[in-house]
Amino acid sequence: MGYGYGFYFDPTYFLVIIGVVLSLLASAKVKSTFAKYSRVRSMSGYTGAEAAQRILQSSGIYDVRVEHIRGDLNDHYDPRTKVLRLSDSVYNQTSVAAIGVAAHECGHAIQHATGYVPLQIRSAIVPIANIGANISWPLILLGIFLGNAGGIFIQLGILFFSAAVLFQLVTLPVEFNASARAVRILGDSGILYNSEVSQTKKVLKAAALTYVAAAAGSVLQLLRLLLLFGGRDRD
C-alpha cells in the first residue's frame, strides 16, 4: 500500500493552511504593534542600546557586548559569543517599542548568566533541531519515492522533524520569561514610566504571538505527518 495521499490534495492540507494563517496573522500583529509604539518616544530619552547597557550593568553583567546589526526586528542575544545584537529599529531609537525589545534581549542575557534551565535545554537541542529541520523533509520525500520500501526513511524523517518541533515548544517558556523579566526590569529601574511599561508590554505580547504561531504551525505539521504515515498498513 502507498503512503498517505501521494502528491494530490488531501484533507490534512487544512492543517498546513491553519498554520500558515496563524503565522501571517501573528506577523502582521507584531509589525503593526511595533510600528505604532515606535512613534511613541520614551520620556527618559534612552535609546535601545543605552537601555540595554544600563539593564545589563544593573544586573551585574559586564561581559556582554551590545552591537548594532542591520535590519528590522532581527534583534537577538547570542549566548555562544555573549553578544546582544540590536537592529536598526532598536539600537539608536528612543521609542518605548525599541526599549522594550532591547530589554527583552537583555532578559535572555540574564537567563544565560543565571543558568535558566529552559534556555540551557534549548541551547542543548539546537544542533539536533537544525539537523532535523534540514534533513527531515528530504528523508520523507525519499521514503515516498521508494514506496513501500521507504518506510524507514519516512519514520526517520518524522523523528527528525519532531526534534525541530521540540525546539519550538521549548522556545515558548524561554521567550515568555525573557519578556516578563524585561517588563519587571523596565518598571523597577525607572527607564520607563508605568504608562510606558504598559505600552511596551503590548509590543512584547505581540512579539510572543509569533513564537506561539510558529510552535502551533510546527505541531500541526507534525500532526499531519502522523495522520498520513503513522500507524498505517504498509502491506
UniProtKB/TrEMBL annotation:
Superkingdom of origin organism: Bacteria
Bilayer-spanning residue ranges: 12-30, 124-146, 152-174, 208-229
Pfam family, one: Zn_peptidase_2
UniProt cross-references to InterPro entries, sorted A to Z: Zn_peptidase_2 (IPR007395)
Keywords of the record: Membrane, Transmembrane, Transmembrane helix
PANTHER family linked to this entry: MEMBRANE PROTEASE YUGP-RELATED
Protein name: Zinc metallopeptidase
